[in-house]
Amino acid sequence: MLTKRTGLAALAVACLAAVLPPAGAQAPAAGTLDIYFIDVEGGQATLFVSPTRESLLVDTGFPGDRDTGRILEVMKDAGLRQLDHLLLTHYHVDHVGNAQNLAARIPVKHFYDHGATAEPDREQVPGFQKAYADLAAKAARTSLKPGDKVPFAGVDWRIVTAAAQAIKTPLGGAPGAGAANPDCNGFEPKNTTQDPDNGYSVGSVIAFGKFRTIDLGDLYWDREFDLMCPANRVGTVDLYIVSHHGSDLSGSAALVHALQPRVAIMDNGARKGGSASTFAVLESSPGLEDLWQLHWSVNGGTEHNAPGAFIANVEDNAALAALLTAPPGGGGRGNASANHAPAHLIKVSAREDGTFTVSNTRNGFSKTYKPRR
Questions:
Q1: pLDDT score recorded for residue 170
Q2: Phi-psi region for residue 80, left (φ > 0), alpha (ψ -120 to 50) or beta?
Q3: Higher pLDDT, 9 or 129
């Protein structure tokens, strides 16, 4: 279970981190699935690189050169000259904002999405749908359905949600899939109707040998129930990519506790996501060893944030004081947070035997997790 480190323990971790070599965004080691959690200030841009150097990017962050540059820098360090696959979980500004800019800079071979937008009268990126259709027409486009597979070399990439629908039967061969989910009994619906395209998010379960992770985009709380109740159709995972940046509109106990992740990674911003209720669900999740964060969360406060060694971007004292005393609202839903420079990332390297290592490029600290027994 996730625990808080005392001052002496945190100091020991920091000293250890200081002597470790930098864990920069470098070319993947042979035989590993490498996952780069790129800091796009509370949006999402997660790059997967297979052992055969095939690439798949989930989402593109906010519009503008900042996030284009950050994505391209990581791709360059990984030795990539094109994107083999670009999967857009849904059509909100913090997830698709950079698709056009990125595709103008590098070749994108195949686009994936959930199909028609759930918000036809409101585009968070003006003109996006037409521009996206034009882009995809020059390459290839697949609108995904629950049960589909994305052809990603050496990796079992299965779609479990899309367009407000979920898989109907448990994933074959997944550990724990089909088991009764006791957290469904106390589930309280939130009936979220704002920003409906969140509920249409493409959700993926990704397996590389015995290593398993899940990315549900911004899937809403009630749609989690559709996927996980009355039985867990997904099974357990090693790594949980925290849904919706840690917003309290997602990340129910019915989802998180049934997944039983050993590690969680939250792609939050300083003021976006990272709600206290999300931290509480994670802290009570059975078997969770560590939480890693892209940013120290103002919303989590001193009670909930992970130890500093596990956080990629931490403000200096003056900036932190400004964040804590500023009125709420900056970097909220759909808004880009202020630039954090340099922008550090979190990297995961997974092996087929289930071993995986998580690294923080800010301080060089890394931790290896052995396979479950």
A1: 97
A2: beta
A3: 129
